[in-house]
């Protein structure tokens, strides 16, 4: 397994094109504004937490990606994820999201972290995660306006038949 732990790159992802067998990339807290993965088709785990991303574009070619961590950025729209069909974990917590989009094709998604965003309603969530309804075992939506809705937990448990955890509540 190849890993690369980044250092301060001052907003630019560069010199990755020769790391074609790279499987994990951890670049948290680097002030990165744009994603440029130079065709890293073998990458399985990618963390860009606590950067300055405002967009989710740039991951389309990472077809082997299984875990994507994008928390604590400034992302306002979920996009560019539909081709990531092997994704099992998606963390987009603590961003500026108002809706759940572009993940209906993700059939292997098990963990979805959306807490600390601005998602108003649970309406449409079943359609948004249609491909992973049976597979999803963990979802975090706390600290979103939708988490204050009546029957919040009951609605999510009905949508996701195999759910094991909603926020910090674990079910047996």
What does this structure look like?
Helix 2 links the parallel strand 7 and strand 8. The chain starts with a strand and ends with a strand. Among the domains are: 62 residues, Alpha-Beta Horseshoe (Leucine-rich repeat, LRR (right-handed beta-alpha superhelix)); 44 residues, no CATH class. By secondary structure, the protein is mostly beta strands.
Key terms:
172 residues, Leucine-rich repeat, LRR (right-handed beta-alpha superhelix), 9-stranded mixed sheet, 2 helices, 9 strands, globular, disordered N terminus, repeat, leucine-rich repeat, Leu-rich_rpt
Average pLDDT, rounded to a whole number, is: 91
Query: What is the spatial order of strands in the main beta sheet?
Result: 1-2-3-4-5-6-7-8-9
CATH class of the domain at 20-81: Alpha Beta
Q: Can you name the CATH architecture of the domain at 20-81?
A: Alpha-Beta Horseshoe
Helix content: under 10%
- Helical segment tally? 2
What is the alpha-carbon Rg in Å? Answer: 16 Å
Question: What fold name stands as the CATH topology of the domain at 20-81?
Answer: Leucine-rich repeat, LRR (right-handed beta-alpha superhelix)
Shape: globular
Q: Return the string of H and E elements.
A: EEEEEEHEHEE
Distance between the termini: 34 Å
Structural class: mainly beta
Largest sheet: 9 strands, mixed
Q: Any low-confidence stretches, pLDDT <50, length ≥5?
A: 1-5
Keywords: Leucine-rich repeat, Nucleus, Repeat
GO cellular component, one term: nucleus
Organism: Lupinus angustifolius
Protein name: Protein phosphatase 1 regulatory subunit 7
